[in-house]
Write a structure and sequence with these properties.
single chain; alpha/beta; Rossmann fold; globular
């Protein structure tokens, strides 16, 4: 049995793609007989703090995951939180492998150095490694400084870099890392996501006007500008018999998105949705869309596939490596008329929609964590 320490700024019950991936991986590691400790901040993405004892893990197996939340002193740009207690905790903790999650986060450099001093395996997983050019001016300036200094050192020190997509590996090439250091292990999903969702529960819980529209299109994520919801404007205006459901918490840039759709009766913002409720939302929808300007991977695509939904997605980044023609459509995220035409084509053909949904579900079987965990254990060397 090995002791693996996972280092991440945020952890469950904070929601997000990375947070869910870390939780799912940790649970599978425990099932395989290993000990897992998660070291994280007490911060959330909306400014609130969690108690040190907060876990809210409902799964029995998660009782065997040790979670240590460390005090956040302050935050900088975006989700960069500073919690210095991490270093002392790492120094006094005995472990066999240290797994760092996130490239642009506080403490990764020092954590990597501590791991090397203790002569332990240091692994880094990159999640959201979108091009710096997609950020605002201040974020772009700070990220360029960070990546050319601290980021470059982190990538040099760690033993292995796990990338969820080939696109992520390509984005790391500018750091001149060894080609054998970055390996591809896709994001995964748990078998619970294949259970049939209850669409009626989603209708009731979120007060969905289900009888007013013939078709339903779903998107799930964080309401912010880079996620590309504005790319669906033409589709929402042309397809008046279709309800477009945008589910997820709103970030600072999200107000502009909501203003764009203000007054449109066929656009519904549900607000935050718990991860356990996602399968119910997916079950209610006819198709799933992902109009992001760039996605490193997009695990939510896998969840939609597991529930048997056809996908219309951006062709920028990881989704282009996941989606195949027999269950999805890839397109330029900025081409609004293409979004409208592709969505309409799938909605209007019941036979095509059914066949693509079945193909999507079969493809999703390839991404179960119960299988992917062995690839991670091979990287750990345990």
């Amino acid at each position: 049995m090995a002791h693996i320490v996972q280092v991440t700024t945020f952890f469950h019950p904070v929601q997000g793609n990375a947070e869910q991936q870390i939780l799912d991986l940790s649970e599978e590691l425990v099932r395989e007989g290993h000990e897992v400790t998660v070291l994280c901040s007490d911060a959330t993405k909306n400014g609130k703090r969690l108690k040190a004892s907060s876990s809210q893990l409902k799964f029995d197996i998660s009782k065997r995951i040790s979670i240590k939340r460390l005090k956040t002193l302050f935050g900088l740009v975006g989700t960069f939180k500073v919690y210095p207690g991490l270093f002392l905790e790492l120094l006094k903790t005995k472990f066999d492998v240290i797994h760092l999650h996130g490239f642009r986060q506080f403490g990764q450099l020092t954590s990597a150095i501590i791991g090397k001093i203790k002569r332990k395996k240091v692994v880094l997983t990159v999640y959201e490694i979108t091009p710096v050019s997609s950020r605002g001016n201040l974020s772009r300036f700070l990220l360029n400084i960070y990546e050319s200094t601290i980021g470059k050192l982190i990538l040099k020190i760690v033993d292995v870099i796990i990338c969820p997509s080939k696109s992520a590996i390509i984005l790391l090439e500018k750091f001149n890392i060894r080609k054998d250091k970055a390996i591809l292990i896709p994001s995964g999903i748990t078998k619970s996501l294949f259970k049939e969702g209850k669409g009626h529960k989603f209708i009731k819980d979120f007060e969905i006007p289900s009888n007013e529209f013939r078709y339903k299109v779903l998107w799930i994520g964080r309401i912010r500008s880079k996620n590309g919801l504005e790319n669906l404007e033409t589709a929402t205006k042309q397809l008046e018999d279709t309800l477009f459901i945008f589910a997820g918490p709103e970030e600072k840039t999200g107000s502009k998105i909501k203003d764009l759709y203000d007054g449109q009766r066929n656009v519904l913002f549900t607000g935050p949705i718990k991860h356990n409720d996602i399968i119910h939302a997916l079950r209610y929808a006819d198709i799933f869309v992902l109009p992001s300007f760039f996605e490193t991977f997009g695990p939510i695509i896998l969840e939609a596939m597991a529930q048997g939904l056809p996908i219309v997605s951006t062709n920028k980044g990881g989704p282009a490596e996941i989606i195949k023609e027999n269950f999805g459509v890839l397109q330029n995220p900025a081409d609004q008329w293409a979004w409208m035409l592709n969505i309409e084509r799938l909605l209007k053909s019941r036979k095509l929609k059914k066949q693509m949904g079945e193909n999507a579900r079969r493809e999703a079987e390839k991404y179960k964590w119960e299988d992917l965990v062995y690839q991670v254990l091979e990287v750990y060397g345990v």
